[in-house]
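Section 5.1 Outputs to date
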Amino acid sequence: MSIKANKGEWGEPYAAIRILGDGKLYIADANGNKNPSEWMNVLELIRHETASRIVSYRYKAEEVEIDVFVNNSYVTSFAANEFIKVADQLAREIPQKKGNSFEISDALSDFMREIEMLHIKAKSVDKSDIFLTILDPRASVMREHIGFSIKSEFGQNPTLFNTAKSSAVVYEVLNMNDNLMDKINSMFDDKGHVPVGGRCDALISDGCDLKFIGFPIASNAKCAAFKENLDLINPRLAEVIERMLWNHFFNHESYVNLEAVTQTIIKDNPCMLTRPEEKYPYMIKSFLYAAYCGMTASTLWNGNSQVNGGFIKVKRTGEVVAHYALESDAFKSYLYKNCYLEFPSTSEKHGFYANVYKEDGKYYFRLNFQIRYR
């Protein structure tokens, strides 16, 4: 196909081919491992390759063979074991490739073209990368067109919550002046990067006080959309998110796994809650689940999920498992145990955080973050 993609991106067509070959999708337990006694039988897999090109893969009722349709018009058929062979080859080839993007071998590329898989990344529809019609043996119920997003461990760990200008925690800086602002903003490390923790230390050592005042206005929403969305989940969440970032950058808390980070929040109890050991983990789990369901920092969210199935994880071994969002307690626990804070560059698209700036005679400072999961 002469298409280049990175390891994570190649995980999407790989997952579809593996699922079609296996004919079933195993459910992951709370630790993210395959539960060999729980699976869904796959009857159909659909990829929205483009807005106008929908490719369907349907199992024949009495044969282990897959019919391929484009916009509901029959194109070709392949034995399911052909998909297994190709998936095995992809699982060997993708991890060995070097560089940011690469092509796969001609034989694999030819097979993908023959099965009408012409795009590495399908057009996401409400955050779903593929749609499955499944037979759930546990309930003997057929579920049609269940949407799943695909996350691959072939490359970098997937992002659950993306950083944005509007996700930044904003502080008003007291006891600041123009000279001190210039001094703080001129601090760089040996590689020319902004030493965020170092600038935070300098603010404190120079006698500044920082007052958390909220989050930036999101340009499209024309309001502090992240604060509005956090309020919808839990009105105390904004304070909890701020404290997490404060603990990392100002208190130099080294661990970033959210379960461990939350333990410090429980101990400090910044919101003065009763039963903090129950309420803070519940808050964080709800935030992670909302992020999975489509909540972002830049757009007002109404609480509705944009994914009705869950997400499919391609493990580094090539094993494919599903986290079924309909079983939300186990799914939330998985996210809580496996998500971690990450701190992106201080570039413009991340809001130039860790820079002191001045507006209407007042000084401000921002911190920002994103969340990935292992």
